[in-house]
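A brief tutorial aside. Many learners find it easier to grasp structure tokens once they have seen a single protein encoded end to end. The record that follows does exactly this for PGF-CTERM sorting domain-containing protein. Read the sequence first, then the structure, and try to relate runs of similar tokens to stretches of the chain.
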Amino acid sequence: MRSALSAVVAGLVVLSAVAAVPAAAAAAGPVDAATTDRPSNTADASSADARQSDDACAAAPVANGSSPANPDGDPLGWENGCWYNESIDVDRSDGLNDTELDAVVARSMARVEQIRELEFNETVPVEIVSREEFRANTSYNTTTNGSLHQNVKWEAMLMVGEDTDAISVQEQNTGASVGGYYSPTEERIVIVSENTTSPKMNEITLSQELFHALQDQRYNISSFDQYTEELHNARDGIIEGDGNLVDRLYGQRCAAEWDCLMPQMQPGGGGQASIHYGMYFVTYQPYSDGPKFVDRIYQESGWEGVNAVYENPPASTEQTIHPEKYGEDEPTNVSFADTSGDNWTVPHIENGTVDYAQFGEAGLATMLFYPTYASAGADSPVIGVQSFLNYTADGSLSSYDPLNYSTRYTDGWDGDRLYPYVTDDSAETNETGYVWKTVWDSEGDATDFVEGYGMLLDYYGAQPVDDSANTYRVPDGPYADAFYVNHTGTTVTLVNAPTVEGLSEVRAGAAPTDDSGGEEETPTDTDTATTEPGDDETATDTATTEPGDDETATDEPTETPLPADGGAGDGDDGDDGDDGADETTDAPAETTASGGPGFGLAGALVALALAGLLAGRRE
């Protein structure tokens, strides 16, 4: 088992060395960072001084000794003097000089055009930076409240304990895994290389970033609202799904007919200790499910159908995990009434960033799977390895969609919102709390989630608290805290505090005595339909109810014992439903997205890496 998991980690480190992470994790100037519950990060890499040559292939050596004639105008498949099928005589063993790099970039632009049937509006400069420089300039400059927000949300995911700084973990992930990114505000691409003097270009990574530039030129993806983890992954369903489908078609052409600078393993990646795979798997979801989502539309409606999705991007990760729900099952805008005591407050995040978090179906599924990976496969308290992997018809692990984010405990998700709570001393003690309200399509779906979450708490040593309904205490370890699980109808509300007594201070009515009646929402908490705030909307934070839900929900505790046994599960789909309470919260003043670097070969590499884990499970 240990040797098999070592192979998994080694494979994922290779993935990290040649691939990139989603946009908000890529180093970019502050104006490039998404307005999001993710931290803004900065890098002071300078803009490229010059754009690529207007006749790049005329200056570069070609394989047949001469370059084809330039066309009249600017047709698809030709850019800056290079045709998509030109053979450039480049010896990558000694790296690429400026002339060779210009030619490779121009030809790659032409190839992206040829595959995707979209014309670039303008050339995008490409800059090469070393991994050392990239790491040095990768910093998440944030306020005290911003740091507390990040710590609480990843602690709520049971991935980063109170003894660890979540910002530092994210910086390590970024420095180890980014292979390139596109900056829409500077309209440039940065490729991270182990050798900047003579870079050995990976044409697949380059094509991914060039396509993100093309997406921004044609569809203004930098304007997408991506202000939470869930919305970032949801919108990336089209951004990265389209990009990775193009990459797949690009790679097929390279294998069959084109002369390409294919990926090479490079030394100096982040290494096993530098990558937190829980966070990694959360952000990987659109790269696994996105291409499948886009390919389904492409097969039905061609590129025109895919182009139309940019006008109505996925509203949730649920819609890319279950493509049949796209346009059919809109998520509930979960609303929330603050009932905390005077000592507890939600830390305010400045610069228009929302003060809550959302993880969606993808995040919740990853939370339930993470102990399996964190334990090196020794424990599978909720979701086993084989339930988290996708297989092809011949029984091999899929290289196109390797990870399965659909589980029976999280299918039926309809919305979630997590509010961190802090005191005046939290910055020094890191003692925090949170209220995480989730809404499900049906009461049965909510019950399934409570079951899976109960298994997770049990794994971390949670003990039921005498005389308090649905209240548990983890006595020690990184998640030593008190937890209250309130299941009412289609709503599950999780409350966390350092002590059992503190639960009711974070959320009035939490941790009720068995005869007290428990937490209840106020009579004003009625169900009124709203939508998630976007470019033209204001958050009203009133709960929504689908047709047929005639009752006003109250958070009466439902006695649900903590399960003693773990297990692995598959998914089944639920139907519509919701619940909530009303009180206005901060809506984002501005939403931007930083485009997005792509994984390119990530699917294949993850598949190879996880195959080791699968082999270990079969021993």
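Self-check: Residues 1-52, 266-272, 520-619 have pLDDT under 50 and may be disordered. If you spotted this yourself, you are ready for the next section.
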